[in-house]
Amino acid sequence: MYLMSKNSLMSKVIYTGTAILTKDISIEVFDEDDGFVDVKIPSGEYEYRVLDINGWKPAQILLKDGYIDLAGINFETEGIWLA
Q1: How far apart are CA 17 and CA 6, in angstroms?
Q2: What are phi and psi of 12, to 5 degrees?
Q3: Is residue 36 part of a domain?
Q4: I want to staple 75 with a disulfide (CB 3.0 to 4.6 A). Which of 1, 14, 43, 80 is the partner?
Q5: Structural domain includes residue 3
Q6: In this predicted model, what pLDDT tens digit does every residue of 24-49 receive, in sequence order?
Q7: Domain tally for the chain?
Q8: Which 3-state string (H, E, C) describes 4-51?
Q9: d(CA 64, CA 27)
């Protein structure tokens, strides 16, 4: 599954806060069972975290079922603001 549990990788968290999505976005993620899947995320406020995994710093937002990576998303053009 493409979602990470809320408690996963907590020792790697370097930033947390609120992500504000000013419009709905769609993210394509890879699922081991289903291949590439489009995930639609409605506008609103979400908890976010940034990890540090050996120098790689992925940003993730928390959906109701777990965290999802925002890899490949241009925050400015997609209307995502981190507070």
Answers
A1: 14
A2: -100, 0
A3: yes
A4: 80
A5: no
A6: 998 888 888 888 889 899 999 999 98
A7: 1
A8: ECCCCCHHHEEEEEEEEECCCEEEEEEECCCEEEEEEECCEEEEEEEE
A9: 16
